[in-house]
Write a structure and sequence with these properties.
Helix 6 packs across helix 9, helix 11 packs antiparallel against helix 17 and helix 14 packs across helix 16. It is globular and about 65 Å long. The protein has 2 domains: 193 residues, no CATH class; 182 residues, Transferase(Phosphotransferase), domain 1 (Orthogonal Bundle), CATH 1.10.510. 45% of the residues lie in helices and 11% in strands. With 417 residues, it is of the alpha+beta class. The N and C termini lie far apart (88 Å). The strands form 4 sheets. A 5-stranded antiparallel beta sheet has the order 1-2-3-5-4. The chain has a 3-stranded antiparallel beta sheet with strand order 6-8-9, covered by helices on one side.
């Protein structure tokens, strides 16, 4: 046999081996990442849900619904290989015929950090058994002290300015969701409550200030383990950056009204927005604007301010403008001022500075949400003046009046169409 023939056979034999290896790799890949996710309901897996970490979790009120297959993934949310692109840990599913969002409310590294904190405060090693150690972690001290403002202060932005009335309302709404009175909550349910408050208070915010009472947040269905179920918004606000002028005016008007309603309302709780980005606003199919990420909302009890009467409590407080040069989506604020002043312009500042005006600095979206107005609006100049005064006022406390006039002006554009 010639040398060339031997070389050819060796090459051909090696090529067949490589081809077989590639074939088996594709079969395994297809089975693990394509076939299995669509043939197996991962939402019954306690490890995937994070139920195995309870009571250091958001709750168990929806676990039976998951176990019975009433909540099912939609489309690509079934594919775990895509999780590397799922930065926000949000999945989409169907629940009793409704589109819902499944949210972990944090990155895996943040859950690891919570687990380490539980182990440390429970006087155990870093790889401790979370379900058992949670019962004698620092959460137990808070429960022993009676879930008071003093014991819960600084656990999250929601209780950065705590009051007994706020804590009572949060506990009442939390218990109501479970079909109980606050005094009927079990020790385990209190651990769920504190774990949520410390890790990400969003579920408590959605229950305390529910959409059913007119608050601009999604509906909260419940949780199983470390996965929550909330109303799904059709699109984020960023999808409307290039929408028609009047559509953007409508959404901008809703934003300003939300800023007003969260500042002044019958409940006498001011909810201050501290993280405003296009991704944190959602728009429903009927065009209603919601805030879909409420982890960093600071809640202030206005009745407490009236009772305590700190120095200058009833004077108006003006938020200082910050250029935030070289930074994207920057918003500075003074927490202590928000806690002690009855009248602040923070929410108007946040919306105008970070979303509507030319100062809005989110990457890829120059000029703010109200960019490129019609020539008639540009010639009139009133919109630009009000946006400037709302974001960076020249007149002392001018932001208060500018915000009201801006709401009226945006409304007038919609009436003229």
């Amino acid at each position: 046999m010639s040398l060339r023939m031997k070389q050819f056979r060796r090459f051909f034999s090696g090529w067949r081996v490589r081809r077989m290896c590639a074939f088996f790799f594709l079969v395994i890949f297809f089975y693990c990442f394509i076939f299995q996710p669509f043939s197996y309901n991962q939402l019954t897996d306690t490890t995937f849900l994070g139920e195995d970490k309870c009571p250091a979790c958001f709750g168990t009120d929806l676990c039976e619904e998951f176990e019975n297959g009433k909540i099912l993934f939609k489309y690509s949310s079934r594919l775990r290989i895509l999780d590397i692109f799922n930065i926000k840990n949000v999945y989409f599913a169907m629940y009793e015929g409704m589109d819902v969002a499944l949210k972990r409310l944090g990155h895996n590294s943040e859950f690891d950090q919570l687990d380490r904190w539980i182990c440390e405060t429970g006087k155990e090693g870093p790889q401790c058994h979370i379900p058992s150690v949670t019962y004698y972690s620092n959460f137990s001290r808070v429960i022993y002290e009676g879930l008071s403002p003093r014991s819960m202060v600084d656990m999250s932005d929601m209780v950065r300015c705590p009051s007994q009335r706020l804590i009572d309302r949060v506990l009442e709404k939390y218990a109501e969701h479970l079909g109980k009175e606050p005094e009927e909550l079990s020790y385990q349910e209190k651990l769920h409550f504190l774990s949520t408050l410390k890790f990400n208070p969003e579920p408590l915010m959605l229950q305390t200030f529910p959409i059913t009472e007119g608050w601009p947040f999604p509906f909260y269905f419940g949780a199983c383990g470390r996965l929550t179920v909330v109303q799904k918004c059709e699109k984020t606000l960023g999808s409307y950056y290039s929408a028609s002028w009047l559509k953007r005016v409508d959404l901008a008007l809703q934003m300003m009204k939300i800023a007003e309603d969260l500042t002044n309302n019958e409940a006498e709780f001011a909810l201050y927005l501290t993280d405003l980005t296009y991704d944190n606003f959602g728009v429903t199919s009927d065009g209603n604007l919601f805030i879909i990420d409420v982890e960093n909302v600071i809640v202030v009890d206005k009745q407490k301010i009236k009772t305590d009467k700190p120095k200058h409590w009833d004077a108006r407080y003006q938020s200082d403008f910050d250029d935030c040069l070289g930074m994207s989506s920057c918003l500075s604020f003074d927490v202590s001022a928000l806690c002690r002043y009855l009248h602040t312009d923070h929410n108007y500042y946040a919306v105008c500075r970070n979303m509507l005006s030319d100062y809005a600095s989110e990457r890829g979206k120059p000029g703010g949400f109200l960019h490129s107005p019609p020539e008639t609006v540009v010639r009139e100049g009133r919109l630009q003046q009000l946006l400037e005064e709302c974001a960076r006022p020249e007149t002392p406390f001018g932001r208060f009046d500018a915000a009201k006039e801006l709401i009226e002006l945006l409304g007038s554009y919609l009436k003229e169409r």
